[in-house]
Design goal:
Length: 193
């Protein structure tokens, strides 16, 4: 069990990450100053620099966390392709409904994908994330066995995964929005009987 000092240090780090996440999505990367983050985290800039040496390093850490959150190994879940997508949908929706910070992470990741002014290390991490493309073979497999509807696998993957982005953004803006059920999103892929 970590001692009190270790717990306090980890809590401060989480406070900085939460403040940075909130400010980056509200103000953008370029307009967010390290002083703003320190103020929102209720600490001095000197203490903040003890945890992150720069705004760039803080942003890169948030992008790293976001990228780790998008790592779904659908093929390793087991079962049929549709069962793999259902398990992923349930996990994502559970995370969205149970952790308000996760919705903000969806917003940050979308903004980062479309921002040329972010640090190169963040761009490099983002270039490795493409769940839409990685899902195409699994969709094609599901089409072959007759459980996923026919159609362009890339378009189906896009429709499925982008629906989570829209849901997360809506809940980030309006926290009282109810979270949809996984089956509703699975219906995007599921072959009609």
């Amino acid at each position: 069990m970590p001692n009190k000092r270790t717990q306090l240090k980890e809590q401060r780090r989480m406070d900085i990450l939460a403040a940075g996440l909130d400010l980056f999505i509200r103000k953008g990367y370029g307009s967010t100053k390290i002083a703003d983050i320190a103020e929102q985290a209720k600490m001095s800039m000197g203490l903040l620099f003890h945890y992150f040496e720069s705004k760039e390093k803080l942003y890169e850490e948030l992008i790293k966390i976001g990228c780790e959150g998008t790592e779904f190994h659908l093929e390793q879940i087991g079962g049929t392709p549709l069962q793999s997508f259902r398990a992923a949908a349930e996990e994502i929706l559970h995370m969205i409904s149970g952790n308000p910070g996760s919705t903000k992470m969806f917003v940050l990741m979308e903004q980062a994908q479309n921002n040329d002014a972010i640090p190169q290390a963040a761009k490099d991490m983002l270039s490795q994330v493409d769940i839409i493309q990685k899902s195409i073979p699994l969709i094609e497999e599901g089409q072959k066995i007759g459980e996923i509807r026919q159609g362009n696998a890339w378009a189906l993957s896009t429709a499925f995964w982008c629906s989570f982005q829209g849901i997360a953004e809506e809940i980030a803006l309006h926290p009282d929005t109810p979270c949809p059920e996984a089956d509703w999103l699975i219906d995007i892929l599921k072959k009609r009987e």
